[in-house]
Amino acid sequence: MGDNGYAITTENLTMRFGRKYALREINARVPTGSIYGLLGPNGAGKTTFVRVLLNLIIPSRGTAVVLGYDVRRKPVEIRKGVGHVAALQPLWEWMTVREFAGLMKGCYPRWEEEPVRKIIADMGIGMKDKLEHLSRGQRALVSLAVAIGHRPDLLLLDEALTGLDPIARREVLRNIIDVMHEEGRTVFITGQDLPDMERIIDYVGFVVGGRLIAESPLDDLKARVKRIRVEHPPDARVEPPAGARNISRGPRETEFTVQDYSPAMLEAFAARGLRAEALSLGLEDIFIDLAQGRLGAEAK
Amino acid sequence: MGAIFLKEWRQKNLLFLFSVLMTGFLPMLYLFLTLTVVENWQDQRTLDDCVGLGYLIALFLVVLLSGAGAIAGERETGTLPALLALPLSRLEIWLGKLLASLAMAALGVLALLTTALLVVPQSISGIFWSTIWRDLSVLLTIGFFLSFFWSTVLDRPISALLATAVSEPALYMAAVVFMYLFGASLYGDVMWDTFLWMLAMLPGMVLGSYMTFSRSGLVRGRRRWLIALAWTAAGTLVVGAAIVLPLRWSARYQRSNIANLWVAALPSGGQAVVIGTEAAPVRSPKSNEIEYRSEHAVVEDLATGRELLVRRDAIWAAVSRDGSTAVLLTGSPTLTWRSSRIREGTPSGIEVWDLTHEKRIYRGLPRQLWKTGTYRLDLWGTQLGEALSPDGEWLALAVSRRNWESRTSPQAIPKTGFPPQREALFLLRRDGRVSREVAVYGLPRIGALPYAWDPTPGRHAIYTWGQNGELLRHDLDAGASEVVWEGPLRHGVGKEERLGFGWILPSPDGRVIGVTLCSSKGNVIHGQYFFPDLAVFLVPADSSGKAVAWRAPEHGDPSAPRWAASSNLAWSPDGSAFYLIASLQTEPSGAKKEAQCDTYALRWRRGETSPRVRNLGVPNGGFPHVVLESHLFLVWVRDAWQVLDDQLRLQPLPPRLRAIDKSYIEGVDALGRAIIAGRNKDGKVKHVEAVDLRTGKVTTVFP
Fold it and tell me: Which of A52, A297, B288, B347 has the fewest CB atoms within 10 Å, i.e. the most exposed one?
């Protein structure tokens, strides 16, 4: 379910705590069936954004629609269709895994016990184990397993992969995220581990200082944002095209980043007898440039 | 919601465990101490009480902990977001927590009480046979909801617990102060009324808790506090208004219990009727004393039907002659732990109201009238119509010294005895800032006025009798007293040790004072007090000239003592004539029903040496009411009403009054209407009519 093909849409979504803005006029679109990564530094507003979507906090201004429901009007309906995991979220330590699953089962109208048991068993966790006796990673895995028990249409993972070892992470990806994606359900992940995120997501949003500064399919972003390196004689000066940022000049080469790369750029330099090449940037490089304000809204 | 309830239930197992431990620990402690420390039955009794107290403390702990950890516990452990992220409405989550906490508290109380009854039955069982169980139930209930409320607002269970421990007694005191200030006593019992008002705050607390939980969510700090306090205040105000407004309306309904009516005139030409509602006097089974308890005092303008003043828990009320001021003696609870139940007319407060502006001028109780003060108020001695000076500036209350023991109510007065002698008048200026105390002497008799106000405009003075029978005037503004008349001893009336002080009534212009005197030792005949040697004097107020005297004429056997009963004195509005109704009896025999008895109407014009006396020719004394504007008298003679003009000539009686018993007429107002109150078999006023003495027109006043 979604709104015009989007699992999540926000319009000028703003959240203010006193004088401090946690979110500023965020206009986000999360396509249904995508794996959307919301990236940003600490304190950027990622967790606040997730909490607004779940109606844990009420936005100061703007609207947010999740699975076709307005967060202000139908929060319970939203939560019925959403699975939520926050890796840093404390749980009821005194509960056993079975009791925790039982609580979730009692709250959701539809529940499938078997996938939950299988995932937990595959991780070597016993149903009678108390949550307080599990490691942080194990607790995160239990939370993940329980989060999909009611077959959510949208899975919200807030720093959920943080703290997982590579094996656990692979398990999560294979058993949960991939399955969700294959079934056309949407996964929304927040995090800071960009190399990992780059392997998972197909949509990306960058949030810095409460603002969504970029949002795009990942492949498109990587295709458009390139680093151009031009080799030239020592006394020559190469002028980058308009809109280029992060210009670095050396004695024999000049580098700069463009947001709207096309092969014609390289051809133009070649026509002048200069050798130029386009370097792909990793998500981390793109993010750093965005975060430092060197790439503007044109990257969107 | 069921999932939340089960989760809470499972989580609070620890609390139940605590209850179980206490139920096991205390008996073991009790047994141990019994075997090792107790040496005699007194020690055993003390131990029983201590263990019983331990159980009571445990009760409160279990209840408060159940509520305090409900939501604050989730905040403290950080699990609140996980809870709020569940597909449940805030109401379901909140209600699940409330019900689970309540159930756990109830179970804990049950377990503790059951064990306590088994272990220390003597100490605990007494709770159920007294009002303690009521008080305990209310305190525990309020404690639980308070702790739940604080759990919603605060971040830690321990904070909620401490906040409850502080706020519950604070709420109690706030309720007491509220009742004291506004007289909002529902049952006249400080403890129970306070609990009721605290319980009235519960809906506000519950609403505040829910709204805080549903609206603040993960919000911290000031905003959560604002939401909590705003909704709690709103809820409390709504419930409070829902209680108070119907009560105010029910004041009219409560008039079905009207026992007394007093009539005064309002400057507008209407009239004020002070309606004192009293429960029927009951005899206390414990003390065998008569108790009275008033529920309302209402001052109403009969002309418009508008209530000028409604006051609950007022045991006595009066209005000044000019209708500008009302005074109430209230049974409002004082800030003590004692009951406010009124006994023998001892009030807890005085209130003075400006009826013109409908505002209270004074409220309090002078220290001399405190329960530990010098005086005790004598309601029976405080004359309703004369308690206030004509302009309402001063209030006169009859008081007796506190160490004087013998007190009886009028109903208990033996036929040959007298009501207790009053010792003083306590005079209070209406703003409460100045008070005077004036000794009063006089033979106590029912209906006799031992004092009278000087009606001279601008003067605040009061007339009383002195110890030697002299007539005194006390200037309240100057604080000085003077002898106006040296009294009856010099005029050969009465013997020295049996002085008969009677009525005092100054003329409207204050220049002449009418007094009645007779010897002591009265007797009750046909329901009236008769005294020998009745004499009437007109005394110049400025002490110039001689007082003019008239003695009751001989009647029947000249050798027999002359007994006379005198009733209301009255002056004509212009002060030109003085009126009195006197019944003369030749033989003070209660056995004879048809004794020789004549009723006289006396009219004495100033300047005349003797009054004009008209024998009305019928037995039994009358009770004249002087209509100030129409110069008509309404007189009860021989089981019937008569209307006389100022020439003492009979006038046509309005048809409505022909079949009305004397007890039904409550007074005559400034508009010349007789106020008739119909009573039921219990003596309560059920309806009120006003009959115009000139035209005979009947107006229904109430209901």
Answer: B288
